[in-house]
Amino acid sequence: MNLFLRVCHVLEGVDAVWSRGSVPALLRRKVLAKIRYKTESVFRSQYGRDLARWWKK
């Protein structure tokens, strides 16, 4: 669970840095969606569907 929160924190930080930089918003969204999908599938397999549902909120 601690790792899960850390991943969320890292994603927020990456997004904040990118939005200040010159990375296009579409590319940023695409990459973040891909990372989010991968982490979500990992957590769904490890912790069950309820945590994945919470993650989608």
Structure description:
- The chain has 57 residues and is an all-alpha fold.
- The two termini are 17 Å apart.
- The protein contains 3 helices and no strands.
- α1 (2-20) runs antiparallel to α2 (25-47) and α2 runs antiparallel to α3.
- It has one domain.
Topology as a string of helices (H) and strands (E): HHH
Low-confidence runs (pLDDT<50, min 5 residues)? Answer: none
Mean pLDDT: 72
If you compute it from the alpha carbons, what radius of gyration comes out, rounded to the nearest whole angstrom? 12 Å
* Number of separate structural domains: 1
The total beta strand count reads 0
Main sheet attributes: strand count, strand direction, barrel closure: none
Strand content: under 5%
Give the overall shape. Answer: elongated
What order do the helices and strands come in, and which of them pair?
Layout: H1 2-20, H2 25-47, H3 49-56
Question: Keywords, please?
Answer:
single chain, 0% strand, mainly alpha, 3 helices, 57 residues
